[in-house]
Specification:
- By secondary structure, the protein is mainly alpha-helical.
- The chain has one domain.
- 72% of the residues lie in helices and 3% in strands.
- The chain has 9 helices and 2 strands, in the order βαααααααααβ.
- A two-stranded antiparallel sheet has the order 1-2.
- Helix 3 packs antiparallel against helix 4 and helix 6 runs antiparallel to helix 8.
- The chain is globular.
Length: 242
């Protein structure tokens, strides 16, 4: 007797996209609430709680938990592909290394490790402008090195998977480093009293987090699509079999 619930890659990514949109809207609502004057103590506490839970640049909240979980799912899928392809081609180590990279990214998202480097780098090199958030410098170097090291790996992939990987990477890195550098510039100008408020910074941080979550969702779809189409030994399902 079988009792199986099967979720297709397309269906899963649709669910993830709905979740991402809802989280982004919740973050936008929090930003709007922050501009409203409230005198009632209970309502103020409720507003502060909402803003903390859905702060796109916050720690230990729902958005951070979702992002960390999604990155961990990427690591899990990559590790499964690595095990299946262990004796199938010469790129097993690339799949395995990606699994470790996404595992670190998941831990970093939950523990906010990279932000610990911001102040030391800023003080050491007197950073400002686009490099006000100093962690993007070593992160950019790592992305460049990994990108160069994975060119042959990408070329050996099926065209559909290759382009999904590239699109996911561009969207994720564009948000994580590209928009982060712009947020850093705006935050720097704000800290120098050259801006009236930090509202624009919050907008860019919200878009940045949206792009990171979107890029991760596309990558999850790419991994599931690749596994279901090219790995005969893999069957992704949840259920009981008797």
């Amino acid at each position: 007797m079988k009792n199986i619930i099967s979720i297709s890659p397309r269906k899963l990514v649709q669910i993830l996209l709905v979740v991402i949109v809802l989280l982004t809207l919740a973050s936008a609502v929090g930003s709007l609430l922050g501009q409203v004057t409230i005198d009632n103590y209970l309502l103020v506490e409720m507003r502060e709680s909402w803003m903390r839970l859905f702060d796109p640049n916050g720690e230990a909240n729902i958005i951070a938990w979702y992002s960390s979980s999604a990155l961990l799912l990427c690591s899990f899928l990559l590790s499964m592909i690595t095990l299946v392809k262990k004796e199938q081609d010469d790129y097993t180590r690339h799949w395995g290394a990606l699994s470790l990279i996404f595992l670190y990214m998941s831990v970093d998202e939950a523990a906010v490790i990279h932000e610990m480097a911001v102040k030391p780098l800023r003080d050491l090199f007197d950073l400002g402008g686009f490099f006000y958030y100093g962690w993007i410098i070593p992160a950019g170097i790592v992305v460049l090195i990994v990108g160069l090291a994975y060119i042959k790996f990408l070329l050996h992939l099926p065209p559909r998977t290759r382009w999904l990987f590239v699109v996911a990477g561009i969207i994720f890195v564009g948000g994580a480093i590209g928009l982060e550098s712009i947020s850093g510039l705006l935050d720097y100008l704000y800290s120098q009293a050259r801006m009236a408020s930090d509202e624009i910074v919050i907008i860019f941080e919200t878009i940045e987090e949206f792009l990171e979550m979107l890029g991760t969702a596309i990558f999850i779809y790419a991994l599931l699509d690749y596994a279901s189409s090219h790995l005969q030994k893999v069957s992704f399902h949840i259920g009981n079999q008797q």
